[in-house]
């Protein structure tokens, strides 16, 4: 089991409040992603759950048991760090075996579990190497191996892919998702990369300045952002947010329209705009345009669109895809 | 990009470095040379060529038993170093990984004790040793040298421990290591190079310490420093014998230093060059 419940959790370092007050329930087997800009408190929240930091107020319980004041090891959680935090003086086998050794397992059990984990993670040929002799992706696998051998109630990942190059990040993202399918254990994953959040999560928790802005499935956040912050954070390229007259016409302080929900035409449409930059990605064309009425906007057009810098285009928002926000930024 | 250095400049610097090194080493070299001279030769004036006699060494050995002060030096320097590490490792660990408000002040205060001339506390320490029956005892001297070198040991270890990323210790904590497990299985093995150079430096410092070792011992616990002093006797100075005794006293530490020089240099420049 791996139900994790946070009630009224707060954290302050001296007089600096990082997390004012958070309530959150994580269900067994869920893949939960904490996402937000740097400094939003997402890593601190993860460290509070891990027990590496003490809460300033509130309680944390795992499967109904209050663990607020328990040491990290007793919470039965495993963590994968951003820097991998492998033990440089130990071989891969010893790194993976370390938590089992600390738990006092017998040598036979340790050897078997290490061999199993190594097989799952394709590390069997590297067991006698030291972390310094491995590539970034292999190190990350060792860190994951060290986490899975303990069969923890939940896995905590603290920006585990941010030190890898783009191609490897994509592969590792898949591997972690597959691992979650295999193990069906609760996973909490911290990232500032909304693509990682969208692709991996069952549930995304969007954090901003220590507060939860919205909790929901990736598609819920994409389709129904609760406020301007979530609207601007989730989705790539980001949502166009338009203020002033066009918004007032729709009875809102701000209206949002995603780049993929604007109909593009070279002859007619609601908003006339001039193309500043056209990024031809092959699959899509991303246009950065300047409209007299709606201001600077981004448009996702067809990959074959023959539009270049300086062209004039007309944009028409899909009315069913418009997001309306009041003056406080809340969705209407 | 490496800066271009002309061959002439290189030669110039090499010669300068050799001159400085020879100047520093010269007193030791001259002591060794003198130890191979006869007494009349030794006082007759400056000469770099000895007659090569081993007379002084025989006399030193026959008049005094070299082995006892040598063993005392070994026991005192190794013992005080081991004790200092046992105290210093946990102290430096706590200061490096869970610093409090006053950690920096404590470190400065510890170092400040090294700024005080030792003679300032000679009388109280001597009286304490007398009252506790520690005069001329190896235990007393071991503890004394441990205390004297402790600030340096803690400072050096603190610097090494600071280089170890905190996340690795947190990983150990998540993996179920107790505080003891964390120190034994993770921190200490990672800090071995640092601990080794601290150990080597401390042995050298303790081996050469002469203020307290001479004043707090007479016969039984007298180490090699006291052995040398006994040759500058009231009957007159015997340069050749004094030099032979000095050579015998520094030989072991010189040999140890020679074999561990890489470790020592790495240790002493650690943190300064990355």
From TrEMBL, chain A:
It is a peripheral membrane protein. InterPro entries: AAA+_ATPase, ABC_transporter-like_ATP-bd, ABC_transporter-like_CS, ABC_transpr_MalK-like, ABC_transpr_MalK/UgpC-like, Mo/tungstate-bd_C_term_dom, NA-bd_OB-fold, P-loop_NTPase. GO terms for molecular function: ABC-type maltose transporter activity; ATP binding; ATP hydrolysis activity. The keyword Nucleotide-binding applies. It is found in: Cell inner membrane. Transmembrane segments: none annotated. GO terms for cellular component: ATP-binding cassette (ABC) transporter complex, substrate-binding subunit-containing; maltose transport complex. Pfam families: ABC_tran (PF00005), TOBE_2 (PF08402). The keyword ATP-binding applies. Residues 4-234 form the ABC transporter domain. Keywords: ATP-binding, Nucleotide-binding, Transport. Belongs to the ABC transporter superfamily. This is Sugar ABC transporter ATP-binding protein. The lineage of its organism: Bacteria, Pseudomonadati, Pseudomonadota, Alphaproteobacteria, Hyphomicrobiales.
From TrEMBL, chain B:
Keywords: Cell membrane, Membrane, Transmembrane, Transmembrane helix, Transport. One of its GO terms (biological process) is transmembrane transport. It is found in: Cell membrane. The chain crosses the membrane at residues 12-36, 70-94, 106-129, 141-161, 183-205, 238-259. Belongs to the binding-protein-dependent transport system permease family. This is Sugar ABC transporter permease. GO terms for cellular component: plasma membrane. It is a multi-pass membrane protein. The keyword Transport applies. CDD domains: TM_PBP2 (cd06261). Residues 70-260 form the ABC transmembrane type-1 domain. The keyword Cell membrane applies. Its main location: membrane. InterPro entries: BP-dep_ABC_trans_perm, MetI-like, MetI-like_sf.
